[in-house]
């Protein structure tokens, strides 16, 4: 049986993806060739494969199937439901949903660097910019997943249906929902969505889902309640064609602290400049333990006395947090990875592997070889264990015929950090 690694090497997928759309058709078809949605990808996949001046093409695409999926995270062999992965990033939704028995039937991600990381881990090149796609290529599916970007848009309050969101990315999500009517809609966004435009943005999203025929529930959740040492609050919106999602049934995990997930050895980068460690350190309600700061000159205009080093993300590189507490939300803007921690009497940076652990990514996950891209990608991603726990309850409450499904959260937690290697894309 041909392995996927042989196919990807001959297609030079390791190089910057130049034929991303054709590779998206091909890799989607390779995954779904034996399913009832293969027709969405078959014609373009075969045409592209036949055009390649390769030994593989001489055999014909059908002669290679089925493939041996020698990727870190292959699709389940006996899927229980289907889902699509919109604004997919590096696969923070796909990881847990595949583990729960989901088969991904469509993926979209506009960033080529994230596409490369996604393909290396799952063997599938995502389709590109959702605003430029013919959305008729999206096949039927049970669950729509979308960690959609919150584009700033103002809502007049007159509630004109789709006109209120036309031109924004969420509008394309609504188009797919309107066309395919998935059983479940699972949306994730930043905490600020609650307050954007005095709450009217969230109100409009909920109203549109209601108009599309969904019973909608939403809640603000914190990743620190789901087995990762990170204070990361996100708005979760769940819609179902008949039922309300009960957030109270989510299984929470006792809060970890940073030292629980730190590497014990490695090429650590210790701080080699003056810094101050505070004598009186207090754990905040969020679990953060502010330990000190770099002795850098920073902007203080308009900042309350004594809070200069506790300000928002733009001051993040100056702050030092204790490994006895959790970490602030990893931002996508910090591409240099200047996340300083005070651990065992010394100040050092978090390693790139530790940053991925803080988001709940398992150690075998392939990381982009460019450090700046790797930091951006993890800052843009989602907390995997939190998504997993929501997925468990989606299966139990909204997809299952009964509520006796086993809770697999403990199994997932045990497997998170078993592998000791770091892999690079």
Mean pLDDT metric: 86
- Cα-atom radius of gyration: 22 Å
Which residues sit in consecutive blocks of at least 5 with pLDDT less than 50? 153-159, 403-425
CATH class wording of the largest domain: Alpha Beta
Proportion in β-strands: 15-25%
Q: What does this protein look like?
A:
The protein has 425 residues and is of the alpha/beta class. The protein has 3 domains: 1-70, no CATH class; 76-254 and 385-424, Vaccinia Virus protein VP39 (Rossmann fold), CATH 3.40.50.150; 258-378, Alpha-Beta Complex (DNA Methylase, Chain A, domain 2). It contains 12 helices and 15 strands. The strands form 4 sheets. Strands 2-1-3-4-7-5 form a 6-stranded mixed β-sheet. Strand 12 and strand 13 form a beta hairpin. Helix 2 packs across helix 3. The longest helix is centred in the C-terminal third of the chain and has 16 residues, at 384-399. Mean pLDDT is 86; it is low at 153-159 and 403-425.
Keywords:
6-stranded mixed β-sheet; single chain; DNA Methylase, Chain A, domain 2; 5-stranded mixed β-sheet; alpha/beta; Rossmann fold; 3 domains
Give a brief rundown of this model.
The chain is an alpha/beta fold and about 425 residues long. It has 12 helices and 15 strands.
What is the secondary structure topology, with strand pairs?
Elements: H1 4-10, H2 20-32, H3 42-50, H4 55-59, E1 81-86, H5 94-99, E2 102-107, H6 112-122, E3 143-146, H7 169-180, E4 184-190, H8 200-211, E5 215-222, E6 230-231, E7 233-240, E8 275-277, E9 290-294, E10 319-322, E11 327-328, E12 340-343, E13 346-349, H9 352-358, E14 366-367, H10 371-379, H11 384-399, H12 409-415, E15 423-424
Parallel strand pairs: 1-2, 1-3, 3-4, 6-11, 10-12, 14-15
Antiparallel strand pairs: 4-7, 5-7, 8-9, 9-10, 12-13
